[in-house]
Fold these 2 entries.
Entry 1:
Amino acid sequence: MTPHDVSAYGRTRKSILSSLYGYGEILPGLLAMLFIGIFANNLPGVPNPFTLENLFAWLDGVVGPLHHTPLFQILNSNFVWNPLLLGLLVGNVFGVPDSWKRGLSLIHMLMPLGIILLAPHFPIGHAFKLGLVPMLLCVAALLGTAGLTLLLARLCKVDDRHGAVIAGGLCTGDPHACAILMPLIKAKGGQVVNAAAGLVVFGLVAMAAMPVLAGWLGLPEQAFGLAAVLGVGNGAQATSAAFAYGYEAGRYAGWFDVGRLVIMPAGFLSVFSVMFVRKLRHQADPDVRATRGIDRFPVWLGVFVVCWLLACLHLFHEPARHAMFVMVKWTFSLAAASLGLSLSWRDVLAPGPRGLAVIAMAGIIRMAAVLAMVAICIKTGLLPQ
């Protein structure tokens, strides 16, 4: 843009909102995201039976549960990854016209909005009934896994953006955190999908290995319910592993999983904080890419923290929480559809096998550490047998 063009733009614009794309420019991409979201999930307000979610539910009925847990929940099928998968398929099979791309850029607004709306769903008060020792083990597993994964990513020379989203997903036990960290870390979409897929695959391995290792140690079923939640993967994988160990272990896994869920924000916030401080300390280092372009603590993340604190004080009552979760499903479905349409299979495979190696090493160390901590707590009487 020439100096004359800049001057003309300054004279003609009416407000700061004039820098945004017009409605006609974003409409094609917005409609593409909307239709993919509608055909991926059972979104509130849209009675559409022909969805990927319903197809997976039907297949779950055909295959049957795996240790009392639906197979596609174990594979992390939900309102984020269903539209992401459908967007990947549509974009790579049929292509994405240039007219869609401006509308797809709305992901940069939808992701922060969805993260803010998630805040009321993590009230820490719900975990008080678990007891002090289980909650301390949850916190230790979360922070220890985050620090260990970031360290291994640096030692393996993994791109720090990729390493950060892996750390967030592994420490929280939920591949959702990879997508949540995307706008904070400034990670590439391919890195996010690559990390999430690796975490799901490793979760399947941990789901089979943890009951065997716990049986060798002779852990009681109640204690293994806690160990599965802290050492396996997402909630469905942990529950399936616990039921494989015993019925009581599965019941206790559902009980202890509350402790993991309510401290999830501390996991991705700690990863962002570490990477943000590291970027500030190494401004001139070209290898420090995570959070590059974020010069100050994001305002919208501050809004999330405030809403999380209000949720911990139980100031969001059930009707409000339900309404906000409806909006969460819509915003994340549209954002995930946009991400899927924006990526090629090559983008997903580009990060290579190093990230998978980091997941495997950190995950194995975490399993061993969790089993050791739980066994020590039983021996010392801190956990009931």
Entry 2:
Amino acid sequence: MKFRKNMFLEVSTQRISGVEFSKRTLLNRVVNIAKGNSYCRDSPDIKDFKIDIKNKNLYVLVEGEAVYIKKVILPVVKRHLIYDMIKSELRYYYKDINNIAFTYKLIKKDKFNMEILVFCIKGNSLEILENSIKNNIILKKVNLIQFCFKYYYSSKINVKSYILVFYYNCNLYFLICCDNEIVANNIIYIKGLYEFKFSNVMNEFLELYNDYAKSCEKIYYSNIKELDIKEFEYIELPHQILDDIDREELLKYIIVKG
């Protein structure tokens, strides 16, 4: 019996990185998935990976894409009908629904209606997944980095409504979570944090999502050692700097638990 190989892809608007790994040895903490595996390369062109991912178990991390969040109200229907109803609803917001990938979460439900939170991204980042069946690809996981960081730090976040700011692979991410759900987010591409005017951008983000920001109790930061964290003019909240997470730890977390 021939075992299928595993591949982890990090897909962003700037780069694509692929790493082959063995899940059997992954739990061994001395194994370095990010550097010590049999296959690893970066490419700016997603087409370069179409042969490499063939016949593999595929884990995907989508980076650098803003998540578009919509709250929709639908009549109560059977579960298998919800996806098509959401897709029809999204046609009112997006012209080209075929290039939109989305997932959803049921928030509230009564006898007549369902309140659903829909998370969308542009499908261009997932172009590599086209014809997965034809190429004998088994999609094990497709993760958005915003959710990965949120879930990774969930045990260290002690409030339900908060702001999370983190830096990873030249992207600075801003999230607002209310009742433990992401309700707003933004991304800025910057190569380095040393000369970056963080306070201006932070205040702009908070002003843009003023209603959500007012309900937040705390600000959390991760992977931002180079930033000078100050009190902001717009909003005065306590803040906490979380332990950093490197690429090695993040990839293992996503594959095993994410």
